[in-house]
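Sugar ABC transporter permease
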Amino acid sequence: MSSMAAEGYSRKRNSYSWLYFMLPSIAIMLVFFIYPVFLTFFYSFTNLALTGESARELKFVGFDNYLHMFKDPTVKISIWNTLIFLFGSAVIGQQVLGFFIALLMKHKNKTFRRVIGTIVLAGWVTPEIVCALCLYSFFGDEGTLNSIITSLGIPAVTWLYTVPMLTIILANIWHGTAFSMLVFQAALDDVPSEVEEAAVVDGASRWQVLTRIIIPYIKETFTTNMMLVTLQTLGVFGLIYAMTGGGPGTSTTTLPIFMYNQAFVNYQLGYGTAISLLLLLIGIVLSLFYTRSLK
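Structure:
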């Protein structure tokens, strides 16, 4: 009986042996992910501040930060700007442009792919702040773009003041398209060439091959890439802050910019963390939508 009990205990201990190997990963997740999220959630219900009377004594204020947030007209403007920036630079820009660049390089020789790939990758490997300064110099009043159009006899345009949202959208497209290009390159290389050749032999046009064979074959890649690019774009801060600072006015104030201004310019950390949770909620909703689309 004791032998059977010992055997049962040994078997039970072995069944939980995997937990010992997972403990380091669990500890890292708790310290660097779960704890910061919990702390952010807690601070969003407080009057945490860097200066003033609120900085002397931390108080629980309930849903005051959230009520103030939804009454603040700048929050609505920031959400709208975030969605425009997301749709313009991620959905239309990086996704579509990345796919067509990858399609352009499909079946091309190694030299062509190497040259085009290097040009596109240059924007991706460039640090965000350097990318912002490059594009600021390009769109500035005395920048490269105005030098080109004035040489053609066209009056100069104050791009960063007239169309600031367009400038940051184009900047983010240039900076991030390479990621989508690499994802679609890998997906397009997996499309069986025999199927495409058979369709061409049967009289299919290039457009029919693209819309009826290639795109349906890699449709899951579109959804996965869209989710990754969306989450990356939601967190873009340095690019916008260096180019426009969220201005002029609030015309390019996205949620990350507004959150920074409230937390570190106005020193209202409690209110800033509440805004960060709104940004997190938007990311979760979009991720769930994309995940559902995959099914």
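Residues 73-105 form the longest helix (33 residues).
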